[in-house]
């Protein structure tokens, strides 16, 4: 509890893009409700705060921490453990903290390849071939940067997590609903949900919320969306041969992407009861392929140019296999 | 004791054909390698790719799926679905750095006990040639744990 009697709130970003922070601010004037009910104790994006201020807090002093981003380096892990200790409720907020998201796709590549892409490919101006060093000596002393880990882990693979709010980023109306629920709990009007509950998400799949018509459920070929001349505005995208991740993805986003003519990428994570997101996608995609001939099946599957990246775009770090073989083949840090 | 690699293979068999073929092999005293642990499904089409990924992530070196010959499925055409799933799964695990040959689909009817025993032997040799997969141990380097889903209790 702070001096003004309000419970403390924190938000932190680890390996993420910052979109989750914007999503929180994107609830517009409702952010004032957060301010009216909470003392913002630590939120590096929105206000100046130092790690040592958090370290000086008592255990459990922060009531609610929204943690977004995966655990990619030593610093991420340190802060995740620190905030776990200082928070009563730790929430994995957004796809990265929940399931790895796009940064988790780097688990398919060894660290050397990541550095090569980041510092030496054509899109990078780096004529001297400079690479970051973990330690560097300057006249004033030695500068160090956090060690990078060979794979990205999700928040609950590192610390105990109380609640999960998925989405890349979570939708404004879902964040508002969660804030309302938290405030109701603060006022004593409601009970906390059981630990481990996934909040701000529907109980079904994106297909269930999607208004497109689906009846044939048969596919003769897969096409990439950029190669399609005209997308039918009413028929299921999967039936049009465009890989859409709706069948495995949790509802809650109101099926925004398919409504706009773009396939579901799967950012809301696995639907209720799905253990391995990619496996569910593989099961449903393979079921609708309309062929019994091994060669023809192979020809149809050739249309899926990047199966691991398509089926595990958001979920690789939290999938059963967790990583690609290359990233941990003994060539890590 | 030798240090020869002794692979662990999880086998999923169809109730109507290959499970009975394995049974027949046993009744007829036909030997096949001990490496394969057979599990009965009602149909090869019941194979959720999750089963295969869980087996590999949990330490299996290979996964064998056996079903009725094309056109002979007890549930009309679910073995074709199994064929498509296995083909897609092989492509995905290949993209994740696992040899696709670690997953194999074999058709075997209830009368083909000898054939199934032979095919199991062939697969065990293929996995021995590939070497251990060792997913949990290798993924555990540098203190990086592998995510383990909660084990679901199923009443017997």
Question: What does this entry look like structurally?
Answer:
Chain A starts with 7 loop residues before the first strand and ends in a 22-residue tail after the last helix. Chain A has a 5-stranded parallel beta sheet. In chain A, strands 4-8 form a two-stranded antiparallel sheet. Chain A has about 325 residues and is of the alpha/beta class. In chain A, about 30% of the residues lie in helices and about 15% in strands. Chain A is globular. Chain B has about 160 residues and is α/β, with parallel strands linked by helices. Chain B has one domain. A 4-stranded parallel beta sheet of chain B has the order 2-1-3-4, sandwiched between helices. Chain B is globular. At the A-B interface, strand 8, helix 11, helix 12 and helix 13 of A face helix 2, helix 3 and helix 5 of B.
Structural topology:
The complex is a heterodimer of chains A (333) and B (156).
Chain A: E1 8-13, H1 19-25, H2 31-37, E2 39-42, H3 51-55, E3 62-68, E4 71-73, H4 74-86, E5 87-93, H5 95-99, H6 101-104, H7 111-120, E6 135-138, E7 141-144, E8 148-153, E9 163-165, H8 172-186, H9 206-209, H10 256-259, H11 277-288, H12 294-301, H13 307-311
Chain B: E1 9-14, H1 18-27, E2 36-41, H2 49-57, E3 62-67, H3 78-95, E4 103-107, H4 113-130, H5 135-139
Parallel strand pairs in B: 1-2, 1-3, 3-4
Give a short summary of the structure:
Chain A is an alpha/beta fold. Chain A contains 13 helices and 9 strands. Chain A has 2 domains: 1-201, Rossmann fold, CATH 3.40.50.700; 206-302, no CATH class.
């Amino acid at each position: 509890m702070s001096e003004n009697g309000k419970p403390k709130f924190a938000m932190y970003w680890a390996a993420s893009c910052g979109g989750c922070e914007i999503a929180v601010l994107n609830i517009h004037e409702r952010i004032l409700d957060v301010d009216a009910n909470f003392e913002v104790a630590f939120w590096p994006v929105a206000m100046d705060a130092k790690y040592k201020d958090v370290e000086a807090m008592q255990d459990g002093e922060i009531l609610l921490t929204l943690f977004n981003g995966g655990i990619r380096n030593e610093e991420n892990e340190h802060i995740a453990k620190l905030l776990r200790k200082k928070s009563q409720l730790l929430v994995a907020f957004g796809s990265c903290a929940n399931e790895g998201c796009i940064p988790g796709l780097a688990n398919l590549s060894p660290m050397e390849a990541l550095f090569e892409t980041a510092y030496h490919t054509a899109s990078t101006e780096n004529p001297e071939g400079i690479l970051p060093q973990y330690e560097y000596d300057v006249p004033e002393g030695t500068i160090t940067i956090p060690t990078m880990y060979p794979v990205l882990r999700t928040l609950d693979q590192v610390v105990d997590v109380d609640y999960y709010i998925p989405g890349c980023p979570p939708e404004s109306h879902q964040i508002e609903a969660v804030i309302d629920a938290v405030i109701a709990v603060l006022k004593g009007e409601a009970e906390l949900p059981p630990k481990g509950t996934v909040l701000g998400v529907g109980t079904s799949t994106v297909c269930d919320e999607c208004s497109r018509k689906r009846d044939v459920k048969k596919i003769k070929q897969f096409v990439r969306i950029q190669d399609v001349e005209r997308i039918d505005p009413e028929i299921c995208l999967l039936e049009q041969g465009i890989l859409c991740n709706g069948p495995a993805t949790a509802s809650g986003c109101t099926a925004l992407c398919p409504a706009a003519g773009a396939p579901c990428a799967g950012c809301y994570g696995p639907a209720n009861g799905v253990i391995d997101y990619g496996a569910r996608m593989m099961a449903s995609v393979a079921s609708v392929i309309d062929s019994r001939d091994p060669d023809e099946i192979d020809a149809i599957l050739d249309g899926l140019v990047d199966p691991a990246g398509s089926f595990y775009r958001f979920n690789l770090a939290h999938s059963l296999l967790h990583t690609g073989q290359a990233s941990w083949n003994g060539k890590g840090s | 004791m030798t240090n020869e690699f002794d692979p662990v293979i999880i086998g999923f068999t169809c109730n109507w054909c290959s499970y009975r073929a394995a049974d027949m092999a046993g009744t007829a005293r036909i030997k096949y390698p001990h490496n394969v642990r057979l599990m009965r499904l009602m149909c090869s089409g019941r194979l959720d790719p999750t089963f295969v990924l869980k087996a590999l992530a949990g330490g299996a070196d290979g996964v064998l799926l056996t079903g009725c010959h094309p056109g002979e499925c007890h549930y009309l055409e679910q073995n074709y679905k199994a064929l498509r799933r296995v083909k897609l799964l092989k492509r995905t695990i290949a993209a994740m750095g696992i040899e696709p040959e670690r997953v194999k689909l074999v058709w075997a009817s209830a009368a083909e006990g000898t054939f199934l025993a032979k095919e199991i032997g062939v697969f065990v040799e293929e996995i021995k040639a590939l070497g251990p997969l060792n997913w949990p141990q290798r993924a555990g380097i540098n203190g990086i744990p592998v995510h383990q889903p909660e084990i679901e209790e199923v009443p017997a």
